[in-house]
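Hello,

Our lab assistant flagged a job as stuck in the queue for most of the afternoon. It eventually completed. Since we weren't sure the result was trustworthy after the delay, we are filing this so someone can double-check. Below is the sequence as submitted and the structure that was eventually returned. Let us know if re-running is recommended.
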Amino acid sequence: MSLRGFVSVCDSINDWVGRTFAWVAVPIALLVLYEVISRRVFNNPHLWALDTATLLYAVHFMMVGGYGLVHNSHINIDIFYNYFPKRLQAGLDAAQYLVLFFPFFLILLYAGTDLAVESVAAGDKTVTGVPIIVPVMKTLMPLASFFILLQGLAQFVRSLHLCIRGREI
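-- returned structure --
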């Protein structure tokens, strides 16, 4: 597989994952609407609703991280960066991936896998007793880390190629 093919496959996978998990926002909104109506109209709040909405938002946030990398939607502090030539920008990006990005997400993948295995084995529950959400969320941590690492690798390849060859893939 060529570098262009690899980058394209990574982009496609993370684009699909991001578009799929973006739909998690719909049940979050419906759950919050249900809880507001239940609390304000019927004076019947539910402890599990906030836990569930928070955990679903965490799943949503984690699983669309690679999508954010594909579409360059993460925040950059680029006071000086924009004034540099494209090749230097790409070199700085590649160095940043090596020094900051990969170590962080590799540790998150490793630690997240341990947490997921322990959570599933112990049958973790939330404080309010919702049993299924915690193990699922902790299982999605290493999965999200994997997808973000995959996209980070594609971005690193892009940056390195531009830095060395002087043209984009």
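-- support follow-up --
The delay was a queue issue, not a problem with the job. The result is valid. The chain has a mean pLDDT of 91. The helical segments are 3-21, 25-40, 47-63, 65-70, 86-122, 133-165.
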